[in-house]
């Protein structure tokens, strides 16, 4: 009975420690689709942001957009962490643009026009919103 308990406890301990361990930068980079925006944290706490271009056995390549595209080849021994940058979906971008560019000016124009109508024609505007 005690042997079974010890064997079960040891196997459970090994399983949970294997699941709880943090993935290596190599494993992190291999899970990311090439072309994705990533943030790479180096061992000296420097961070680089760019598109993941290539992952090989001992290194990864990222490109940073700008006036001149910069390409960095980084050895995994110099990398602490690789993470995907969360980007807004297109729907949220469109919704934000509609809100800022269309809806707010339309509301201002509507309420200004309604206020002028009530002031000029002195109609029944007691229920002015």
Protein model, in words:
A hairpin with a 5-residue loop joins strand 3 and strand 4 (70-75). A five-stranded antiparallel beta sheet has the order 4-3-2-1-5, covered by helices on one side. The radius of gyration is 29 Å and the shape is elongated. It is an alpha+beta fold and 129 residues long. The model has no long low-confidence stretch (mean pLDDT 77). It starts with a helix and ends in an 8-residue tail after the last helix. The protein is 45% helix and 26% strand. It has helices at residues 2-20, 25-31, 90-121; strands spanning 37-42, 47-55, 59-64, 70-75, 79-84. It folds into two domains: 23-84, Roll (SH3 type barrels), CATH 2.30.30; 88-129, no CATH class.
Topology:
Elements: H1 2-20, H2 25-31, E1 37-42, E2 47-55, E3 59-64, E4 70-75, E5 79-84, H3 90-121
Antiparallel strand pairs: 1-2, 1-5, 2-3, 3-4
């Amino acid at each position: 009975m005690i042997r079974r308990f010890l064997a079960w406890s040891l196997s459970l301990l090994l399983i949970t420690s294997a699941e709880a361990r943090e993935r290596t930068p190599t494993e992190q980079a291999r899970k990311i689709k090439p072309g994705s925006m990533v943030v790479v944290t180096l061992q000296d706490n420097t961070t680089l942001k760019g598109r993941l271009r290539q992952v090989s056995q001992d290194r990864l390549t990222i490109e940073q957009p700008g006036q001149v595209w910069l390409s960095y080849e980084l050895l995994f021994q110099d990398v602490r962490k690789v993470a995907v940058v969360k980007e807004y979906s297109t729907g949220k971008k469109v919704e934000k643009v509609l809100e800022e560019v269309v809806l707010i000016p339309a509301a201002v124009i509507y309420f200004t026009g309604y206020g002028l109508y009530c002031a000029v024609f002195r109609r029944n505007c007691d229920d002015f919103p």
